[in-house]
Amino acid sequence: MSEQHKIRVSVDIYGQTYKMxxxxxxxxxxxxASMVDDKMREINxxxxxxxxxxxxxxxxxxxxxxxxxxxxxxxxxxxEIKRLKG
Length: 86
Prior knowledge:
- By secondary structure, this protein is of the alpha+beta class.
- The chain contains 2 helices and 2 strands.
- A two-stranded antiparallel ribbon has the order 1-2.
- Strand 1 and strand 2 form a beta hairpin.
- Helix 1 crosses helix 2.
- It is flat, with a radius of gyration of 17 Å.
- The N and C termini lie far apart (41 Å).
């Protein structure tokens, strides 16, 4: 996608402002940023002594873990659909 079709938005994540650039809507990018912020705050509530870098890595690990589980669920459902279709 060309640069002129990119959307720019400023978001706050865990007390820091980030400028995002992407092809999704600003609402979508704000939602993603909000979800990252929520996850960081959730993890921090259980591990308040973590520095920001470690908190960010744990947030990434947790988010990727959730994504892998969802992919596995989709694959299982696709297999079940194939089986039911015969």
